[in-house]
Fold this sequence. Notes:
Largest sheet: 7 strands, mixed
Bound molecules: nicotinamide-adenine-dinucleotide
Radius of gyration: 20 Å
Strand order of the largest sheet: 1-2-9-6-5-3-4
Amino acid sequence: MSTLTVAVDPPYDVEIAPGALELVAAKLKDRKRVAVVSQATIADTYSARLLASIESETNARVGLFLMGDGETSKSMTTVEDLCRRFADWGLLRGDAIVALGGGVVGDTAGFAAAVYHRGVAIVQVPTTLLAMVDAAIGGKTAVNLAEGKNLVGAFHQPVAVVVDTSTLETLGQREFLSGLGEVAKYALLTDVVADPTGLTALLRLRSSAVLDRDPDVLTEVVACCVAIKAEVVAADPFEQTGRRATLNLGHTFAHALETVGGYDLTHGEAVAIGLVFAGALAGACGRVGSDVVDRYQALPHALGLPTQVPDGESGDPEQLLAVMRRDKKAAGGLSFVLPGQNGIERVDDPSDEALRYAFASVGIGI
Ligand SMILES: NC(=O)c1ccc[n+]([C@@H]2O[C@H](COP(=O)([O-])OP(=O)(O)OC[C@H]3O[C@@H](n4cnc5c(N)ncnc54)[C@H](O)[C@@H]3O)[C@@H](O)[C@H]2O)c1
């Protein structure tokens, strides 16, 4: 088991272990009521065990509140529905919410927790790899509007995060691979910055155990990723200094692929291709050598992730560039997060030649 601390104010622990669902109750000792928010497929498998353990180890009344699946359920309508059901059930400010699920549950229940009674405690219990290494850590919560994704949200840090890596056994293969895209990002963040023997080596040496979802190896992998995210979040809790933006490595191109659409890629698959693009772009800008460019391609590949844009011949670079210019970080120009001599940095407006090389590296002619 790993216990890591996110050193924000107040600090909170992230417990990571196979079977860690049993540890959730200990985070709720002084609560009178606990509202567990989840989705039907997840609750069918995991909620009975979780609710029984909270009921037997605390004096709290426990209720299960199901919400819908998918991005369309990450909405103001769901937040209102949850808050009304909480009120009906008697949830008060000193009580707690538990988010049992992936990033959709975590973001929606997290935002509901931020606004219900002007803020109630939330314990994040992520059940997808993406939520374990990313969404559940750091206190960013949001829901979507018809006008765009994550447009309404709040910073609301959890009181604890409990990661049961054995819940990954039931996750669909594409969802699991999608999480590995973010894992590859963390590995490449540390690969260049600080720790060449950490996560990268673990992924290289144990890639088959990772792909077989060995819960002990996944505990180590998730702990490495959480340690990196926790450090960045503690340095820049409200996303004000630019430090937190380094977590967007690979994401400028990934968001463009997702926005242009039509590629049928999960977020993590898009991030994997975005990492290849970022490595190639950094190489073409003379920021890193060919060894680093190669690693940005080899690591996603070793994890079974795509490294080329599907149907690259038909990819429209002008459309992708237009979307990247609209990216909220770019303020009109083109902005990327790239490796270099000084670590991971924001780089604005690379040359057309460097962009052409990066597009070609992911299978798009320009
Ligand atoms: N707040 C943040 O900092 C942050 C960071 C990254 C992503 N996000 C958000 O996270 C969301 C994506 O999250 P996600 O990838 O976890 O998707 P998701 O929450 O939609 O989960 C994917 C699917 O897997 C199912 N599922 C979850 N756990 C399962 C399990 N253990 N076994 C079987 N099925 C399971 C879910 O019911 C769902 O159908 C996006 O909305 C994104 O914006 C937020």
